[in-house]
Amino acid sequence: MNKSDFDFYLPERLIAQTPLEKRDSSRLLHLDKKTGAIEHGHFHDITKYLKKGDCLVMNDSRVLPARLIGSRLSGGLVELVLLRDLGDGCWECLSRPGRKTKPGTELTFGDGELTATVMDVAEGGNRIVKFHFEGIFIEKLEKLGKMPLPPYIHHQLKDKNRYQTVYAKHDGSAAAPTAGLHFTPELLEEIKKKGVHIAHVTLHVGLGTFRPVKVEDVTDHHMHSEFYIVEPEQAELINRVKKEGGKI
């Protein structure tokens, strides 16, 4: 399976730069697996494809405003994307420019409100960075950080919550679990009223979503692991629905 098999032309004018005012008004494409028929609709039409006894599984991970833009104490801009919390104020990060962020490099963000030291170089060239701050780190990040939007999105969102699902709960993702962005509280309520079960898992979207595939044979591409939690009662619900013949 070659990378070139997946190459296709996508006009830039077809890439939406800002979300629609109403989340569930986005377009929805439905493919009938048996007949091959394609149907175009809107996301709120998803209720047509969910039946009583089915189980909708949602990722309740919350996106961190994990993109920090600051400067090196020696001069020059620096950008970090926080990927993984290693504890004790240390994070594994993507850094730009990489050659300017060697171990020992001192960084500052927000007029010195948050500072950091590059401690080490991890596998694949990521940096291990230790942050220095007073107070609560997540609060600093909420104030100084930006949402790590994909490279084809050029507009920063004014409302950070539009890059969160309405059921986001647990901080930890470096990018949004985008399939869930179109749900609204009203649509979820309608789905529940149909007798559809809703289960929650937590999977923190990580480095793999940012890394380009550099090899031609995609089976040689190294995918990074991601942290996840499936609580026992949620696993029990999903397995029960499956056993009773419902769709997951």
Written account of the structure:
- This protein has 248 residues and is mainly β.
- Helix content is 12%, strand content 29%.
- It is built from three helices and 13 strands, in the order E-E-E-E-E-E-E-E-E-E-H-E-H-E-E-H.
- It has a six-stranded antiparallel β-barrel with strand order 5-6-7-10-9-8. A three-stranded mixed sheet has the order 3-12-13. The chain has a two-stranded antiparallel ribbon with strand order 1-2.
- The protein has helices at 137-144, 185-193, 232-243; strands spanning 27-31, 38-42, 55-59, 61-63, 67-72, 77-87, 90-96, 106-109, 114-121, 127-132, 170-173, 197-203, 228-229.
- It is globular, with a radius of gyration of 21 Å.
Radius of gyration: 21 Å
Topology, number of strands: 13
Describe the largest sheet. 6 strands, antiparallel, barrel
Q: Average pLDDT across residues?
A: 92
Q: Which ranges are low-confidence, i.e. pLDDT below 50, for 5 or more consecutive residues? A: none
Number of helices: 3
Specify the overall morphology.
globular
Helix content: 10-25%
Structural class comes to: mainly beta
> How many angstroms does the end-to-end distance come to?
28 Å
SSE pattern: EEEEEEEEEEHEHEEH
